[in-house]
Amino acid sequence: MKRFDTTLYFITDSTGLEEAVFFDKVERACRGGVTLLQLREKERSTREYLALAEGVHKITAYYKIPLIIDDRVDVALASEAEGVHLGQSDMPVFLARKLLGEGAIIGATAKTVEQAEEACGQGADYLGVGAIYPTTTKVKTAPMPVELLKKICAVSTVPVNAIGGLTKDNLGALKGSGIAGICVVSAIMKAEEPERAAKELREAYQRLKGAAE
């Protein structure tokens, strides 16, 4: 049976970073308490993406954190990552499942109730939902009302993670939403101390979760 924890889902961004600096940030984030890590590379060639995935996987394997590859089922297979995350323009979840097998973790982006229901029906293991707040990443997003997030959580049969501009200081709006965790990019990637940032984010989410119970 697959076991994974979406409490603190860290999505990487290597833009403008030397490889050694990037790997250092990844490792420090892992030390700080990241529970799931997604390697997201929108502009690298397949070979570059694969090489980076193999390097990151060595780090995540050491810390026993599942590695999720964004978009690319082929890179996930070749790097022996634990799973893949699929957007609405990527391969359908059910096809990815055929290729990766039942043991793989497959996540999906959902921006509507209908998309959430479809992803769950096709066998997704978790959903990424947002953007809750404006983001500084290159990924195109549109703001999502928290009420819609709540509706998606209500119909989802798998864990739902909120994403989009989240920091340790602005999680309050998500109280009672039903999320299983948070996804962050800049809050860790742009932090001077990624380990401390990850620790504080995890603690902030745990406080939010405790307040909602």
Features:
alpha/beta, 8 strands, 213 residues
Overview of this protein structure:
- Helix 2 packs across helix 3 (73-79).
- The protein is globular.
- The two termini are 27 Å apart.
- It has eight helices and eight strands; from the N terminus they run βαβαβαβαβαβαββαα.
- The chain is 41% helix and 16% strand.
- An eight-stranded parallel β-barrel has the order 1-2-3-4-5-6-7-8, surrounded by six helices.
- The chain has helices spanning 19-32, 46-62, 73-79, 93-100, 113-121, 146-155, 186-189, 194-212; strands spanning 8-11, 36-39, 67-70, 83-86, 105-109, 126-130, 160-163, 181-184.
- With 213 residues, the protein is of the alpha/beta class.
List strands and helices in order, with pairings:
Layout: E1 8-11, H1 19-32, E2 36-39, H2 46-62, E3 67-70, H3 73-79, E4 83-86, H4 93-100, E5 105-109, H5 113-121, E6 126-130, H6 146-155, E7 160-163, E8 181-184, H7 186-189, H8 194-212
Parallel strand pairs: 1-2, 1-8, 2-3, 3-4, 4-5, 5-6, 6-7, 7-8
Helix pairs in contact: 1-2, 1-8, 2-3
